[in-house]
Design a protein that fits this description.
Blueprint (H helix, E strand, L loop, with lengths): L1 E3 L5 E3 L8 H22 L4 E10 L2 E9 L7 H12 L8 H17 L3 E5 L4 E5 L2 E6 L10 H18 L5 E7 L5 E7 L5 H14 L4 H7 L7 E3 L8 H9 L14 E3 L10 E5 L16 E6 L10 E7 L5 H4 L3 H14 L23 H4 L10 E2 L2 E2 L5
Antiparallel strand pairs: 1-2, 3-4, 3-12, 4-14, 5-6, 7-9, 7-10, 8-9, 8-11, 13-14, 15-16
Helix pairs in contact: 3-7, 3-9, 4-5
Length: about 400
């Protein structure tokens, strides 16, 4: 005969053991109390201490913080971390990677200052915030350029731009065109004249021997290998860049290295978040009454009974609503993060100084940082000489 209590105790009675009813009830109650007290010591009651706020340019997430929770990762989280450690992309961006890239572009836009640039052609000045350029590899004679060589050229260009054009905030993404040529899209907050851009990129390509076929065919080292996208007149520049850069890369599965990247100031490593303690001012939650701030509850996975619970709260807004609809600690953290990006003050850790373009970690070598000191090369074009020195 099997008798099971409702409090973690099982007692099996056989024909050889005889117990009185009172003794049986006593042992069940004693064992139940001891097990429950042990569980209370091991799993104390969580105590609400405040809210963690994770801020992005177009939304923020509020998740309650409790003391006494173990904070252990689930099996799905551990499997996701193992998958990320492999650094395999199969030639396309995951939805999470696209979301991170869009957030980086949004941070670039909301943090950039308006800059005045004079146009000699139009004889007037115009204002702009962000720049969107494309760098392409010219056609080659035999084989296409390897991913390692292309990433080396890209790293050289970014290093050159940091040194001579004060490039600090940028987002880039590599794609493969229909004719199997690699190219990269770069969004920045600096002004790059199209002639300077073309000369700089062609100088780097010539150093790696990637303009020899073009010279044999056309007699010059100045192919149309760069493009500056027109962003003036667009109603939503960020939406245009996000749509352009979030499309499929068309890269082969044997492509080695990263598909996209960003400066540390715009990367997911440089987070924008704050903590609102329990019992703080009502001003920190004034956005709840604003119609422009849209709300959505984030539900967790259903339990064994099919019930779900809210694990976090999502609030969505336009970038222009931060100044009018938000207040308190959340807006202060948002403005402080924008200022750090704008003033180029975020201190990047030492591990971020390693370039991970090749799928592995490589320490930046002095010769890469000093590639801009290359001696001038003056190839002869007919009776003219072209000086490609930076």
């Amino acid at each position: 005969m099997l008798i099971t209590s409702n409090a973690y105790v099982q007692i099996v009675l056989t024909e050889h053991v005889v117990l009185q009813y009172g003794v049986l009830v006593y042992h069940i109650s004693q064992n139940s109390n001891s097990v429950m007290s042990a569980n209370k010591r091991e799993y104390p009651t969580p105590l609400y201490i405040g809210d963690n706020v994770y801020i992005r340019p177009t939304y923020f997430v509020i998740k309650s913080e409790y003391s006494g929770l173990s904070g252990k990762r689930s099996r799905a989280q551990k499997a996701n971390e193992k998958n990320l450690s492999l650094r395999e992309h199969n030639g396309f961006l995951s939805p999470k990677a696209k979301s991170k890239m869009k957030n980086a572009i949004n941070w670039l836009n909301v943090s950039a200052k308006y800059k005045a640039v004079y146009s000699k052609k139009e004889r007037k000045s115009f204002w702009f915030k962000v720049n969107f350029i494309t760098l392409t590899i010219p056609p080659q004679k035999e084989t296409q350029v390897s991913s390692a060589l292309f990433q080396k050229c890209l790293n050289t260009f970014l290093t050159y731009s940091r040194k001579y054009y004060s490039l600090h905030n940028y987002v880039w993404k590599v794609e493969l065109s229909l004719d199997k040529r690699l190219h990269v899209h770069i969004a920045t907050d600096i002004f790059y004249h199209y002639k300077d851009l073309r000369n700089a990129w062609n100088r780097i390509l010539q150093r790696e021997g990637l303009l020899n076929f073009h010279f044999e065919k056309f007699g010059n080292y100045d192919p149309n290998s760069s493009d500056v996208h027109k962003t003036r007149g667009l109603n939503d520049v960020v939406a245009y860049m996000c749509e352009y850069m979030a499309k499929d890369s068309n890269l082969d599965q044997d492509y080695k290295g990263r598909i996209w990247g960003a400066s540390y100031s715009l990367s997911d490593k440089h987070k924008c978040e704050c903590f609102i303690e329990s019992g703080s001012s009502r001003r920190n939650y004034s956005f709840i009454d604003r119609a422009q701030v849209r709300y959505k509850a984030l539900q967790g996975k259903p339990d064994c009974m099919g019930k779900t619970s809210t694990v976090a709260n999502l609030y969505m807004l336009n970038s222009s609503d931060w100044a009018t609809e938000m207040d308190g600690l959340i807006r202060d953290a948002y403005n402080a993060h924008r200022k750090r990006i704008r003033d180029n003050t975020p201190t990047q850790p030492k591990e971020y100084l390693t370039i991970d373009m090749f799928g592995e970690r490589h320490i930046l070598k002095p010769d890469i940082l000093e590639l801009c000191k290359i001696e001038a090369i003056t190839p002869i074009i007919g009776t003219m000489k072209l000086d490609l020195q930076f």
